[in-house]
Amino acid sequence: MPLATVSDWRAAARRRLPRFAFDYLEGGAEDGRAMARNESAFGRIGFVPRSLVDVANVDMTATLYGQQLAMPVAVGPTGLNGLYRPQAEEKLARAAGRAGLPFVLSTASTSRIESVRAAACGPLWLQLYVQNDRRIAERWMAKARSCGFSVLLITVDTPVAGTRDHYRRNGFTLPLRWTPRLLLDIARHPRWCLSTGVHGMPQMVNLADCSEQRADITTQAATMAQEMNRSLTWTDLAWLRRHWNGPVVVKGIGCVDDARLARQYGADGIVLSNHGGRQLEDAPTAIELLAAVVDAVGGSMPVLMDGGIRRGSAVAKAVALGASGVLLGRAPLYGLAAGDEAGAEEVLAILRRELEVTLRLLGRPVLRELGRSDVTRI
Ligand SMILES: Cc1cc2nc3c(=O)[nH]c(=O)nc-3n(C[C@H](O)[C@H](O)[C@H](O)COP(=O)(O)O)c2cc1C
Asked: Do the Cβ atoms of 78 and 106 come closer than 8 Å?
């Protein structure tokens, strides 16, 4: 059966992946309320359609940080993508580039930064988690700069990993412990088993390279989880600036005051995000926070958002409420997991087609011209 929507791709990803891997992709923190609200909040925003407008041509293009994009959308940073497919980040970067969108490489990525560079055909942005040993972050930034990465996203909503009950339920640990339950789970998914068997379990290769540790996932997992720098503060943006000569964007802003602080400390942009509902349960959703943040800081720097984008119409709503762009988390991963690189490409194409139809039906053919009068609370 052809897969028509992001939600169809999600169902296909669920069928192909062992449960522990799908739950890692999909799972939110605690009872999943923040994650569910990310999506449902879009359903409370209605459109104000205009008729008899010339919508023969639609313009969805955007410029972000000097880069011309096909849409104001980036494939956002997600860790451990190698759990779904080998060479996952090379494939996502290519899919993004072909769609005219940037790809953001996570610190917890499983493909070497050099091979992502070689594979990519579009803008590359870098996501940073800072560990206690700051030399790791400094090496990561230096490597990325030499590979032509242009924009740095520092993620600030992750001093610890959120409470993800499914890890414990599924026995998901790094390294994987081969419990009978896990072995049964894997045995039930022979296609996944075959491709992972041939290519081996993914490793956080970049973290290993930058920390000069062996690429053994036990050490890497410990480095990620226990060594996350929990004393990072706003003044550390100055340290980042010394090591990054491009735009620095703070990802994981969850209130208006922090948006103001980001501006005050010299950020070049922010991403309103609750990390896909994977961190603080009942954290605000970015789409609900957006208008207030744009009122506070919008004129001074790009305000991006993420969380719950599963339809092209969601991009239109975010732009109407003042977002300069959106990041995709799970959506392209569903495509990758279920359909490999072509699946990731198709998910991006679905969102594009839906956005185009939305703009025509809305009678607002130029995406960047959308404003608050185009949407209403329903
Ligand atoms: C499987 C998975 C892994 C993620 N890993 C990272 C990461 O390494 N760094 C980061 O800043 N955000 C990470 N995120 C959060 C995403 O960048 C993004 O904020 C979130 O997924 C957006 O919500 P959505 O999935 O509903 O689109 C991850 C999200 C998922 C689903």
From this structure: yes
Instruction: State how beta strands 67-69 and 62-64 pair.
Output: antiparallel
Query: Does 81 contact ligand 1 (Cβ within 6 A)?
Result: no
275 is catalytic: yes
- For ligand 1, atom 10, which residue shows the shortest CA distance? 77
- The whole model's pTM is what? 0.97
Helices marked H in the chain — which ranges?
A: 6-16, 19-26, 33-43, 88-98, 113-119, 134-146, 165-170, 180-187, 190-199, 205-211, 217-226, 237-243, 256-264, 286-297, 312-320, 330-362
Tell me which residue has its CA closest to atom 7 in ligand 1.
78
Segments of the chain with pLDDT less than 70: 174-175, 213-219, 221-222
**How far apart are the CA of 292 and the centre of ligand 1, in A?**
23
CATH architecture for the domain at 6-46+57-358:
Alpha-Beta Barrel (3.20)
The finding on whether 276 has its CB within 6 A of some atom of ligand 1 is: yes
